[in-house]
Amino acid sequence: MNSYVQVNHLCKSFGQGDRKLQVLKNINFTIEEGEFVCLIGGSGCGKSTILRLISGLDEEYEGEIFVDGKTVCGTSRERGVIFQKHRLFPWLTVAENIGYSLQHTGKKEKYEIVQSYIDLVGLSGFERSYPKQLSGGMAQRANIARALVNNPKLLLLDEPFSALDAFTKIALQKEMYRIKEGKKSTMLMVTHDIEEAVYLADKIIMLSPKFPTGEKIIRVDLPRPRDRNSKEFVELKKYFLIIFSVIR
């Protein structure tokens, strides 16, 4: 595998003068092409800030960020973003929301592309539904499809399942990994849910100022599909919980 994302000596502060607050200090990590990586850490440690910087939504930082060998400069369709809230346009149907960024695509081609992603996320039959007519899980499925429709090489997810009930969250975690494998995408997800991280991730990046370098990177070598009730899964989850309790 080749390093697709490379973060070198990343520092980020907010505010000015005496009120300046440094949230990221000398963060270093790489993400290999095709990997699913989870970022975990306490509130305010800079997880979502890292996602915004890699996405290009925030361009003020110190250090280096490379995606596919190129310095990140602004946003790009090669980097899709999925936020915690679905942010679907309430006046557009599911199909219209998903196809919104394909405005310069031919009508027939656009229909085929949109339909393929509706099928991919399991929303067939809801093409003409509006966001208010969808459950939380269905709206997030539409949100995922909208992020994937441009076929981004890198997908950045900011706690996309945190507002969902436990059963819907588990179902969408499975769907997310199935989609990742099918699309051969590289994914970086922020989460507070350690079980979610252990279930999904190839490696986990834990952020805390208590670490000497600001981060700790641990590979998750459990076989797939992963069984949440297996001895190995439970033990690894306990291991991360112990670390997390110390670094918060």
From TrEMBL:
CDD domains: ABC_NrtD_SsuB_transporters. It comes from the Bacteria. InterPro entries: AAA+_ATPase, ABC_transporter-like_ATP-bd, ABC_transporter-like_CS, ABC_transporter_ATP-bind, P-loop_NTPase. Keywords: ATP-binding, Nucleotide-binding, Transport. Residues 5-234 form the ABC transporter domain. One of its GO terms (molecular function) is ATP hydrolysis activity. It holds the Pfam family ABC_tran. This is ABC transporter domain-containing protein. It comes from Megasphaera cerevisiae DSM 20462. The lineage of its organism: Bacteria, Bacillati, Bacillota, Negativicutes, Veillonellales.
